[in-house]
Amino acid sequence: TVLIGKRNSNLYDLIKALRTKHLGQMRYIVLLYVDPIPYELWHRISIFEGLLIVRGSPLEENTLRRVGIFRAKKVIVLADGSQPHGASSNKIGLEALVDSD
């Protein structure tokens, strides 16, 4: 599973859900992160086995190849749904974030 994005408020819960016993064999989770991971976040998620952190840009094909995007069983892209200061409340731009299933 490859996780891409900067939204980290619920990252612990997402990783925990991906580690449930009923999913069978444990698979590696690769977290592609642009910035250094905040200490508080790392402290929470470092308890999970098989978690790999790769620093790089998801806009670079070379980085996507490094994380194994073309071999991954699952890819989860996390969007930053926060609005910039002064943005209107009608969530312009978020309509493009649709479920691909």
Radius of gyration: 15 Å
Number of helices: 3
State which percent range the strand residues make up: 15-25%
* Coarse morphology: globular
Tell me the strand order in the biggest sheet.
3-2-1-4
Order of helices and strands: EHEHEHE
The percent range for helix content is: 10-25%
Distance N to C terminus: 16 Å
Query: Which residues sit in consecutive blocks of at least 5 with pLDDT less than 50?
Result: none
Protein architecture, described:
The structure is a single chain. The protein has 101 residues and is an alpha/beta fold. The protein is built from three helices and four strands. It has a four-stranded parallel β-sheet, with no helix packed on it. α1 links the parallel β1 and β2.
List keywords for this structure.
101 residues; 3 helices; 4 strands; 21% helix; 18% strand
Write the layout of secondary structure elements.
Layout: E1 2-5, H1 11-18, E2 29-33, H2 39-45, E3 51-55, H3 61-66, E4 75-78
Parallel strand pairs: 1-2, 1-4, 2-3
Short précis:
With 101 residues, the protein is α/β, with parallel strands linked by helices.
